[in-house]
Fold:
Amino acid sequence: MTSDGAMTMTDLLLLPGDGIGPEVTAEVRRVIAALTPDLVVEERPFGGISYDQSGSPLTDETLALAKASKAVLMGAVGGPKWAGVPRDKRPEAGLLALRAGMEVFANLRPALCFGPLADASSLKRELVEGLDFMIVRELTGGIYFGEPRFIEDLPGGGKRAVDTQVYTTAEIERVARVAFELARGRRNKVHSAEKSNVMDSGLLWREVVTDLHRREFADVELEHILADNAAMQIVKNPKQFDVMVTDNLFGDILSDAAAQLTGSLGMLPSAALGAPGKPGLYEPIHGSAPDIAGQGLANPLAAILSFEMALRWSLDRTAAADRLQAAVIKALEDGARTRDLGGRLSTVQMGDAVLAALA
Ligand code: IPM
Ligand code: MG
Structure:
């Protein structure tokens, strides 16, 4: 509330979270101060640290604030400290509850190979140089949320565990629509990945995507691909891809593979979007990296580029986003490298490099 009693709309809710999350989001705060100091920013504990403080990885108050903000930027959640916590209170459960609560069903995970980093990839330079590939991962359905799910004891000893993969026409259609629309602004090609050869949910996925394509997106090139073949093609010839749409679990796995093509997980941002006008959720795709947390070694660029996506997709600040992207590329061209990129810069020094390039 401001002094005259009017509610101030939060532009950006920062959820630094656990592990390296606080270190990388601190660099985002410095970028905000330099680039968009007028943004209204709030911050809340999230994940393991929230569980430690309040017994819940995502409090009702934090979720309500997330839904009332224009964008949410998360650092990372989880770590060995919370391995013994009941599953519904785990930091990861907080993240799933945030995604579901914000209804951000389409997760955009770019695999973009920055020119100066082509040699940091585990693939040959010619396979990855110029790579610009976007995975659209369904984020609020499928086996991550399907019921029933349980582990039960069997009478004769041993146990039985059940997870449920479930998709409806509407869930598939809305995420496929995001992929087709994105492709129109890019190279106009969509691959839809599923396992229709063994799974009923895969069969429905293929049917719904085919149907939507025929009705609304016949101008976009569509190819169906089995998810296992997609994994193979991603490491064999990644530049054949423009946009790939896939379900929650396949998207989790395929996006890690695609990310590694670019040299470092420490480089990649993501955006999770819901219905038009609703707040987006932005996260670096690296995890909490407990092995290096607190040491100032983490690469803050994925978090900084996640903020760049937030400027573009939720905050309507395209010019600032362009400036920030150019600054990151310039810092890399000037040789700025954290350890994951084969260099020696600390988290703060990489932040310094981006700020210098911005200035
Ligand atoms: C990701 C992560 C999460 C997921 C975990 C932390 C729950 O792996 O964002 O890819 O599986 O979705
Ligand atoms: Mg993952």
User: Anything to note?
Assistant: The chain has two domains: 1-105+274-359, 119-266. DSSP finds twelve helices and twelve strands in the chain. Residues 119-266 form a domain with the Isopropylmalate Dehydrogenase fold (CATH 3.40.718.10).
